[in-house]
Amino acid sequence: VVIYENETVTDFVSPPVPMKSFYPIVLGGIDSEIAQAIWDNKPAGILSYGSTTVAVNGSQGLPHNISFDRPTALPVYISMTIVKDSTFPSDGVTLIEDALLTHISTLGIGEDVLYSRLYTPINSATGGFYVTSLTIGTSPTPSGTSNVVVPFNNTANLSRGYIVTGK
After folding, report:
1. Which of 29, 43, 91, 155 is the most buried (most CB within 10 A)?
2. What is the DSSP letter of 31?
3. What average pLDDT does the segment 104-115 reach?
4. pTM, to two decimals
């Protein structure tokens, strides 16, 4: 979860948080349980903001609307060329893909994909190879060598099909 708040008397533009409210962005969980947790912990008289709204009954049995957002998945594509030697295992490409999938899955909401940090999971996955080129991006044919900037309400999404390992 990431929570943005606006204590001022003017609306924030980015992220869009109305005045005197807070904006939770929640990954995972069940909507009704999330809304109840927000209700149980929010300050009295302060509105929550978001596109998902769930009614929660307060202690007097009256319904209160609790709002939050879910992050949008931002596809991240990785393309690399590797040179293998005789010690490269038969499942080496799968090991590299698994390491990249694990790495990206640890990134939080709004956390950028740092280009240079991709070499650590790649090189830690196995031995018997070296990388001759590595590109990343948000399109199926990535050509960048810069960080992928993930918006505040997105999460980086990498799947096995988004990784191309040339030989």
Report:
1. 155
2. H
3. 97
4. 0.87
